[in-house]
Amino acid sequence: MPGPGVVLLTRPECHLCENARAVVARVTADVGLGWRELSVVEAPALGERFAEELPVLFIDGVQRDFWSIDEARLRRLLSPTPGA
Hints:
Blueprint: E1 6-10, H1 15-31, E2 35-39, H2 44-49, E3 56-59, E4 62-66, H3 71-78
Parallel strand pairs: 1-2
Antiparallel strand pairs: 1-3, 3-4
Helix pairs in contact: 1-3
């Protein structure tokens, strides 16, 4: 599994991945977080495991979304918990 932080698992020439990349970049920039993209070319085992779900969004190693990244949901997931 990808490590800590926000990681977007993608594959080359994937229109859903392009859309997901734009959403993740916009939301993480708005909340002041970094993120990284990991291609299945670099991680073939993950590509095999998640082949039918790409793109896949991981936050701190936990799969949180796939196919179409929901911007509102991602904002909720990355927003600080009140009182924390």
